Structure formats: C-alpha cells, structure tokens
Amino acid sequence: MDDQVLQPGDRDYVGALASGLDVLLAFDAEHPRMTLSEVAAKAEMDRAKARRFLLTLHALGFVKRAGRYFELTPKVLQLGYAYQASNQYRPMIQQYLDEITATLGESTSLTVLDGDSAVLVLRATPPQRLMAIQLSVGTRLPAAYSSMGRVQLAQMDDETLDAWLQRQTLQAHTAYSVTHVKALRERILEARQQGYCIVDQELELGLLSVAVPVFAANGELLGAINISTNAVRVDMNTLVSRYLPALQEAAAQIHTYAR
C-alpha cells in the first residue's frame, strides 16, 4: 500500500466504517450521554442511519443504553490503549514528566499534533495544584493557542505551515489571544528560531505555559512536552530560567535514549 490518502467516494473507502467512527467521536466531555436525535445531529447523519450504528456499537459492547440515552462503555478505552501501548517511548517520557512535576510541583504533559489540535497523550499532575482547565489523556487543545501546539507547528516547513494557517479561523479565548493569522505565524516562527514556545494567558486567563519539541534519536518528532502553571504565582523570569531548562534537559535525554 502507498501513502495516498483515500477520499470519500474512492473504491476502497469504506463509508460505513467512517460513519461508525463519526458516531463514536460524537461523544465527548460536553456530550457524554445523548439521545438518538442528538447523536444524529452531532454526527451529521439522519436518525435511521445513526440508529443502525448505535445499535451495532451497542451489540459490540462499545455503547450502552439507559432509557432514551446512549453513552460509551469502558470498552472504548481498548482503542486508546492500543495506541499508547504501540509507542515504545511513552513509558520513558512519562518518567521524565513525573520527575519534573515532582521537582517543580507543576503539571507537565506530552501532546501530539493532530490536525488543528494538540492531543494530550501523557500527563503528570501535582495533587496540590488546580487549574480551571481540567486536562486528562485524550484532551484536545487548540494548537493555535497552546504552547505544545505552536512548538510542533514550528517544526513544519514553510509551505506546510502556510497551508495549515490558511485553514484556520482564529477565535479569541481571552483578551490576550492572537486573532490574526499573520501574528500567529510570527509567534510560530519565533518558536522555531528559539527552540521553545511560551503562551501567556491566550487559552485561559492565568494559564502560563512553556513547551519544547521532543525528538527520537533518528530525528522523528515524538510530540511536545510542556509545563503549565499560574501566571500570578510564577513570573516569566522563573519560567525561562528554571522551568524551561528542565524541559530542555528532559528533551535532550529523550533524544539520546529514544532509539
């Protein structure tokens, strides 16, 4: 098989499989339980079609019913576990995140870039810190407004980056959010030049974060690791002089041993 991506309508494209996955992906943190009509609307399909897929997923054990409502079952976690288990570097990266969190008392994460999102795949949190945004494995953050997203976008070549930027419709999350594509591009290129990215309260008021890219020894981009903290409690000087070096050291160690 080659690397060409199939499009809907291609002979080998299985539309039923794609629609079934659309139904699974319709459930999220804001919509954990939905009626048939709600699922159909969110998956953008008619009720009859959504009903068939829901009943099939129910028969397979991925969905359960509670009266008029449908919700996912823990069996769905098998899909995510397969992804996590297939990456041999994750346990090592988790160890470094745990060490940084234990030393600095701040939350750390690893994300991978997926379309317009930075998807959280590893997380270490200190019990004493609470942020308004509650993150867990699988959380999708807007790449345009997260330090981990921007520092991974910085690894793209100019043509790929410009194509990505052209697809974006920027939406302010706070008064500090960049809302013009040209300004966002400048921030991303700055991250490329300096090798790290800082985002100061653009995603959430009070949320300050710094991220660096993580590479395997063969040069493969594994994702980005970051430290997120409170802008009131931690100043920019501490972020750059103490937190950033901890991330850079971890990234260097991962690059050495991820073979």
Can I get a quick summary?
The protein has 259 residues and is an alpha+beta fold.
| Integer tally of domains | 2
Q: Name the structural class.
A: alpha+beta
Number of helices: 9
Termini distance? 26 Å
| Spans of at least 5 consecutive residues with low confidence | none
**Main sheet summary:** 6 strands, antiparallel
CATH superfamily of the largest domain: GAF domain
Let me know the average pLDDT.
90
The total count of strands amounts to: 9
| Sheet with most strands: strand arrangement | 6-5-4-9-8-7
| Order of helix and strand elements from N to C terminus | HEHHEEHHEEEHHHEEEH
> Could you please say which CATH topology of the largest domain applies here?
Beta-Lactamase
